[in-house]
Structure formats: C-alpha cells, structure tokens
C-alpha cells in the first residue's frame, strides 16, 4: 500500500501540472425567506416536470450543462436529480427505458447507486457492485469530471487503496483541474486516511486554492478543512492564524460572487458556520444575508436535526445582536459589500 504521507505530493503535483446581484438590504426581505436546499431557476422547472412524471426537462438540463461544459452546475443538478429519483424510482425507470444511452441518465444512475449504498452497514461491499455504472457514466462523456467525482466518493466509501485513489484523482483533474466537487472528494478521502492529521489536509486545500482562479469555488476548500478540524476534534493542532486565513480566503471568494447566487450557497452557509465557531459573528451575519433564499443542509445538519430552523434562529440571533450593538453606538450595522462590476459583489461527508 502506498504511504499515506506520500499521497499528498502526488495530489499537489497533478493539481498544479494540469492546469452578482445588486446590493442586499440591511435586513432580509420576505421574498428572500430561505427554504432548505431550494432549487435554482434552471433546476426548478425540471423538478416540477419530474413531479408530473416527465423526464424530458431533466434530460435537457443535463444535456445543456454537458454541451456548455458547466461542470459545477452539472454536478449539483446530478445530485439533486438522483435524490429525486431515489424517492420516485418509477420516474427514473421510465427515463432509462426510453433512452438508456443518455449521458445524463447514466450520470444520475451512478450517483443514485452510490447514494443508495452509502447508508448501509455493508457499504463497502455494496459499492463494489456499483463500479460498472460509474464506468458507463465516464464513458458516456469523456470530458466530464463529474463521474470521476462520483468515482472518488465511491473509492472512499469502498475503502480503496491510496494508489488506486491517486489514479482516479489524476484522471479527474486532467478533465477539469479546478473542479470543486472532485477537490472536496479528495479532501474527504485524505481526512479519512490520515485520521486527524489536519495539517496535511490544510496543506492540500491551501495549495489547491493557491493554484485555482480567484473566482473558483476551490478557493473555499481551506474553509472546508477548517470546518473538519473544528467539528471532528483531535489530531494535530492547527494554529488559529491558519483557520482565520482559510475563512478570509473564502470571504474574498464570496465577495467576488453575486449575492443570492445558488452556486455560492453552500460555500456561504459553510463560511458562516465556521465564522460563528471562530467568534467572528458580525462577519457571519454578512454571509447569512448574502445567501439570500438559499439555505443548505450542509453544514447545518451537523449542528441540528432541524437545519433550516437552526439557520433561521442563528440569522435572527446575529441580526438582533447587531441591532442592539448599533443602538448602543457600537459601530453601526453590519456592512454589506457594495455591488461591483457586472452585478458582482465588490471584493474586499457524502
């Protein structure tokens, strides 16, 4: 078996070598009231149609992301459609019978199979039977990194060796050097492999973020490492300065992206959670306001059995504290970044 410590440089080498809505109001408006894991304007019609038993809009949506190489959106949509298929198997079966070779169908089939196996105590054994579906999804569109993200999750769940995982990683980053989902999958695998050696996870996350474009979601990878450190506990100690640097990097990314952007929703929810844990509560409120109506299950499901309720209570608690501080002359309300060019905000497991 490959030494786990030797895995990090291989990840870093391959990653390096392949190489905005308007200003938010000070308080959230009624129309911005969050729902948990709300669908965006592209996914929502496909889900509504799926509720009527129609698979065509879902297939068309995935075909669009494929032709436009919108890999981050394709990843999000595949996950959501797989979740729908899990609750409505007859819908997915009809789609499969009508067009079994559809690359979108094959992608959802692979994600669905992994999702079904994951909660089982026999996960590793069940996942080994899923491999042909992931292979079929990868062969259906060779440019697509999303089947390789599924393969990376599959490898972690089936306890694959480090050498095999490294091969999957290299194949993934050849297709998309800065695909966020693949980087998250790698970070999770490394965290599980090193069992609390948080510094190595931070090294991987920091180097990946340094190599990524300024507006890439990979800029938020270090804050995911920070969240893991703050929630798992144990292992090597990470200096507070490194935790703050991770949140600062994610906050800079958030400031570059449009407000109420569904693509940035999970990043902003996660960043707010980490900021609260670090005692940076006023900054957390900025992120909760920037999310708009997009509250996400992760990370709040790690904090409460009622993730949406937890999100809403936290937002109101922080907003009330901010109003009280402002009333007492404590520096005024929490600043919300002004809109920058083209509507963006100006810069400042499984």
Brief digest:
This protein has 350 residues and is mostly helical. It has 18 helices and two strands.
| Run of helices and strands | HEHHHHHHHHHHHHHHHEHH
Give the amount of beta strand, in percent: under 5%
Low-confidence stretches: 1-31, 333-348
Sheet with the most strands, sense and barrel status: 2 strands, parallel
The overall pLDDT average reads 88
SS element count, helices? 18
The total of beta strands comes to 2
Alpha carbon gap, first and last residue: 25 Å
What's the structural domain tally? 2
- Evaluate the radius of gyration: 20 Å
* Structural class estimated from helices and strands: mainly alpha
Give the strand line-up of the largest sheet: 1-2
Helix content: 55-70%
Shape: globular
